[in-house]
Specification:
alpha+beta, 418 residues, binds flavin-adenine dinucleotide, 2 domains, FAD/NAD(P)-binding domain
Length: 418
């Protein structure tokens, strides 16, 4: 269910294993999507998917670094990803998601996945606690039932199944919304910094801007902040975005001779986490499992990574003939460990005390591990040393509660019905 980066990755890797895969996507590609800046570790799943050559041949700007600008306008040194890893994987891309997602979906087709667009999944069918199929409706047509051993929910922020099963918890500390648009003619830094992502705090410290160079002289710029602030005036998103740009010198001077070339988009950007990544016969990947605040551009990487981990676990399930929650959730602890590191650094970002430049000046021994998180290298060893030092600088809240117990057939029935 869903043909974004998480769905097409899971599907392609399962097809590579020789399994029969049906992918149902609600919209017709290419379609607009936000989430344009990649993390360097995306390289490895892209390699497994067999699309690295297409990425290298693309016009997507190369991203060598990320740079943070404080509330007072003070710029950190760029964090160059090659500093910790001189391999070509340390250079990544800023992508137009319409093109990137379509490339991944077509790649799934080329690997033998039966991709059907304009097919909206309306229901997941259960026998007891076991998911056995879906009901889908083609645009303008009659519903169809499709049956499968494993149902993968990759429906993004729609989070179809976790909402139905009521296992999706918003993170009360990260209730944010976003307003954004594309511009033409925004200023870019020269040389190696031309494709860098900029993250700029708003002067009041309550929100931040992203500034992401895209192909053809475009930039994506948007603001993330609390809903009470950004959505205070219903229907006034454009005025709020314009005023916020005016107030943030770093964005204002970069966009002063630029022209807006897209509509203004808004989204509620609440972080959330599902209490489980799988049940009997079903698996959650990408945003459908968990959505993290986009401050570190981790979403697409986590979509690909969770798709990869899920595909390997599902492949193993077919080898064993075991489609239980126990087998299908085997990738969950690896995924949560990596996501936990990113989530904690997000919590730090939203405290008044934390600032990247200040942190690495005070704890230079952690600069490398800090870059590791920004790169996405979070699935290896634990980072307790770094977080102990971080807690000396800013308060870090407790994490969301751990995985829930298995969902029973009775709960599946009750939650789906209500
Ligand atoms: C404001 C903002 C800024 C962001 N910036 C970044 C960034 O810079 N870098 C980054 O990496 N990430 C960023 N992200 C996150 C990124 O957009 C997501 O993490 C990423 O798109 C997740 O991929 P996905 O495949 O899980 O979901 P999606 O890409 O959303 O794909 C889900 C697909 O499922 C389909 N679908 C939904 N419901 C159904 C249904 N019932 N039946 C069939 N199909 C269905 C949808 O049409 C869609 O194509 C940002 C997010 C936001 C909100």
């Amino acid at each position: 269910m869903g043909g974004g980066p998480a769905g097409s990755t899971t599907a392609t890797l399962l097809a590579q294993k020789g399994l029969r895969v049906l992918l149902l996507e609600k919209s017709r590609f290419p379609r607009f999507h936000i989430g344009e800046s990649l993390m360097p570790e995306t390289y490895w799943p892209l390699k497994r998917l067999g699309v690295l050559d297409k990425m290298k041949a693309s016009a997507f700007p190369r991203k060598h670094s990320v740079q943070f600008v404080s509330t007072s306008g003070k710029e950190s040194h760029p964090f160059y990803f090659s500093e910790t890893n001189p391999h070509e994987s340390s250079v990544t891309w800023q992508v137009l998601r319409s093109q990137f997602d379509e490339m991944l979906l077509n790649n799934a087709r080329e690997h033998g996945v039966d991709v059907r667009e304009e097919m909206n999944v309306e229901e997941v069918l259960f026998e007891g606690s076991q998911a056995v199929g879906v009901v889908a409706r083609p645009r303008g047509g009659k519903t169809e039932n499709h049956y499968a051993k494993v149902i993968v929910d990759a429906t993004g922020l729609n989070a179809f199944l976790s909402k139905k099963l009521k296992i999706r918890n918003p993170d009360p500390r990260l209730k944010k919304v976003a307003i954004f648009a594309h511009f033409e003619g925004g200023r870019r830094d020269p040389g190696i910094d031309e494709g860098a992502t900029l993250v700029l705090h708003t002067p009041d410290g309550e929100g931040w801007f992203w500034y992401i160079p895209l192909p053809e002289n475009r930039v994506s710029a948007g603001i993330v902040g609390p809903p009470e602030k950004l959505f205070a005036r219903p229907g006034q998103a454009e005025a709020t975005l314009n005023e916020s740009i005016e107030q943030c010198a770093g964005v204002r001077h970069r966009l002063e001779s630029a022209k807006r070339v897209s509509e203004i988009y808004t989204t509620s950007d609440f972080s959330f986490q599902s209490t489980r990544c799988a049940g009997d016969g079903w698996v959650l990947v990408g945003d459908a499992y968990s959505f993290l605040d986009p401050i570190y551009s981790s979403g697409v990487f986590l979509a690909l990574k969770s798709g990869e981990l899920a595909a390997d676990t599902i492949g193993e399930a077919f080898e064993k003939g075991d489609f239980s929650a126990g087998q299908l959730s085997r990738f969950g602890s690896t995924l949560s460990t990596g996501m936990k590191a990113i989530r904690r650094l997000i919590y730090a970002f939203y405290t008044r005390e934390f600032h990247f430049g200040r942190f690495v000046r005070k704890f230079p021994q952690h600069r490398k591990r800090m870059i590791d998180i920004l790169v996405g290298n979070v699935f290896t060893d634990n980072m307790s040393d770094l977080f102990e030092s971080l807690e000396q600088m800013c308060p870090l809240p407790e994490m969301l509660p751990p995985e829930d117990k298995k969902i029973s057939a009775v709960e599946v029935r009750r939650n789906q019905a209500s």
